[in-house]
Design goal:
alpha+beta, single chain, 8-stranded mixed beta sheet, binds zinc ion, 7-stranded mixed beta sheet, Aminopeptidase, Metal Binding Protein, Guanine Nucleotide Exchange Factor, Chain A
């Protein structure tokens, strides 16, 4: 994905009301019409009753007005409100970049973020993709919350490659597949799974090895530390637990590819396990790439 356009926040005053309400109506019109509820007068009134210029920021890209977002404290949470991007600034990754900046700004005592989305609007999917989960529902809106967890950081042995990530959880898993054993030179691998757009490479960049036709593994091209694993088509990826600055912050909750677990190296710890052939989607990926009679693993890849 290409980088989101650079943006800056600017102030909003009472004088901006007419312009911002026009933006709101333009952005929400389609979703409101879908609900059979498009009415400019009501949209204006609703904005009037919740518009807080002091807590609202203008979003500017290259000096151009790209949108606005409200952001203020609500008890121990931060409320995101009236987050609108003009149509020509949508689908560029700008929304995700603005959210990330807001998350970064939150004081550490903030426990969560809150936002409401109009039912059936595209913004539901947007917030869900960014770790918000449904907390309440009203007639027209769905209320979402996302925990405020500090970013996790990590990098390779030599320090050339560094990353920062904002997963909304602290759970990891072990992979015992032969490919991970070989890629890590170890008896198993440990990962945290998270969304690709929650990860930022902050120094250097990983070198990638295409470990199969549909996956790649990131490592430091200088010192060789294994850093990441991802399916090319997936929105999610893994980071290696050992590359984290604080691996103990993540708790292992399960095992994967237990058919190749090396038993004398890892006794049963009571966590649930899954075999590769129990993972339907993954089995399908292997079959699509290597044929329906494939036996997933190293040999299939080497045969090509
Ligand atoms: Zn390195
Ligand atoms: Zn594996």
């Amino acid at each position: 994905m290409s980088a989101a356009p650079a943006f800056e926040f600017g102030p909003v005053t009472e004088a901006d009301f007419a312009e911002l309400v026009a933006l709101r109506i333009d952005v929400m019109r389609e979703s409101l019409e879908r609900l059979g509820r498009f009415d400019p007068a009501t949209a204006t009134e609703r904005f009037r009753s919740t518009f807080r210029p002091a807590g609202t920021r203008r979003i500017r890209v290259g000096g151009e007005a790209a949108g606005c977002v409200g952001y203020w404290a609500e008890g121990d949470a931060m409320r995101i409100e009236h987050f609108y991007l003009a149509k020509q600034f949508q689908r560029l990754g700008l929304g995700a970049a603005v959210l990330r900046r807001l998350f970064d700004e939150a004081p550490s005592q903030v426990t969560r973020f809150r936002v409401a989305a109009l039912r059936e609007s595209d913004s539901n999917r947007f917030y869900e993709r960014h770790g918000f989960v449904k907390a309440a529902e009203s007639e027209w809106d769905i209320e979402y919350e996302r925990p405020n967890l500090p970013p996790i950081k990590g990098g390779c042995l030599c320090g050339a490659v560094r990353y920062e990530a904002r997963p909304t959880h602290r759970e990891g898993y072990y992979c015992h597949c032969r490919m991970c054993q070989l890629a890590f030179g170890n008896t198993r691998a440990a990962f945290i799974n998270l969304r690709k757009d929650e990860v930022r490479w902050t120094a250097g960049a990983p070198t990638f090895y295409a470990s199969s036709k549909f996956a790649r593994r990131g490592f430091c091209g200088h010192c060789g530390s294994p850093l990441s694993f991802e399916y090319l088509v997936s929105e999610r990826m893994d980071l290696s637990i050992g590359s984290l600055d604080d691996p103990a912050a993540i708790t292992p909750i399960s095992h994967f590819a237990v058919e190749s677990r090396i038993a004398n190296w890892h006794g049963d710890d009571g966590l649930p396990g899954q075999r590769i052939d129990e993972h339907v989607k993954l089995t399908e990926r292997w079959q699509e790439a290597y044929g329906s009679d494939v036996s997933p693993g190293v040999d299939a890849v080497r045969k090509g």
